[in-house]
Amino acid sequence: MANTVEEKKFSLKEVLDTFSLCLSENKEVYIEHYVEGWRGLVRFMNSLGSVFSFISKDAVNKIEILANLLNGENGTHYITIQSMVKYELDSGLVDLTQRDKHPESGCRTLLRLHRALRWLELFLERLRTSSEDSKTSVMCSEAYNESLAQHHGWIIRKASGMAFCYLPGRPTFFEVMNVGTPEEVVAMLGEALPIISDVYNITENVYTQHELLQLP
Ligand SMILES: CCCCCCCC/C=C\CCCCCCCC(=O)N[C@@H](COP(=O)(O)O)[C@H](O)/C=C/CCCCCCCCCCCCC
């Protein structure tokens, strides 16, 4: 059951709780909760329809790579992002200039989700401050263009842009979050954002310190 992502209904509160468990007292990021947070987000995306399945397939693939590393024989090195980076770099397990011997290293895989977390942060901030008639497709593509798009080739950017047009409107979006009234959703987004920003910024610092932000 731990390796599947589609059976439970999405709840924003649950995802928020999971991301808040990511940070240790000394600000290390637990991969177990990071991966679990992403599983929750994928459940949300899956509930929006099959037009998003090329996106969720890629996210699931990356989630499973990290889950397998965490549950594998070297799992103790994959407890936090900090310990993973140290272990993989010290052991020469990261392709630094081109995808070669370690095409599925934890560092390069998590970097893809990390970039997507920035998209999420930007998108949720737009949602939080949006008005009733704001378009989710516009908010989503603005957030995408400011983040992930810079790392995607032409075909993925076009396919993503087309998929965004199929996003449901703001009221349906808020409903699927399973929080309550729109005011309650906005309040919960206000709680969620600092947590997501913290996780993002700490990860960004680790990757910056080790010059890993451009891993192939
Ligand atoms: C709180 C509730 C509201 C928001 C809920 C959002 C739910 C989002 C769930 C998942 C987001 C998708 C994460 C996508 C990860 C993409 C990682 C990536 O960049 N992969 C590319 C590079 O990988 P490698 O080739 O180097 O291994 C890969 O090429 C991408 C393939 C698929 C396309 C990715 C498009 C990303 C669009 C992100 C916006 C998602 C919009 C969903 C709207 C709900």
From TrEMBL:
Taxonomy, superkingdom: Eukaryota
Alphabetic keyword roster: Cell membrane, Cytoplasm, Endosome, Golgi apparatus, Lipid transport, Lipid-binding, Membrane, Nucleus, Transport
Species of origin: Clupea harengus (Atlantic herring)
Pfam families named among the record's database cross-references: GLTP (PF08718)
Domain called Glycolipid transfer protein: residue spans: 30-178
InterPro entries (alphabetical): GLTP_sf, Glycolipid_transfer_prot_dom
Compartment list: Cell membrane; Cytoplasm, Cytosol; Endosome membrane; Golgi apparatus, trans-Golgi network membrane
A Gene Ontology molecular function term of the record: ceramide 1-phosphate binding
GO CC aspect terms: cytosol; endosome membrane; Golgi apparatus; nuclear outer membrane; plasma membrane
The keyword Cell membrane is assigned to this record: yes
Protein name, UniProt field: Ceramide-1-phosphate transfer protein
GO BP terms, alphabetized: negative regulation of interleukin-1 beta production
Main location: membrane
Catalytic activity entry: N-(9Z-octadecenoyl)-sphing-4-enine-1-phosphate(in) = N-(9Z-octadecenoyl)-sphing-4-enine-1-phosphate(out); N-(hexadecanoyl)-sphing-4-enine-1-phosphate(in) = N-(hexadecanoyl)-sphing-4-enine-1-phosphate(out)
Keyword ATP-binding attributed: no
Membrane topology listed for this record: Peripheral membrane protein
Family note: Belongs to the GLTP family.
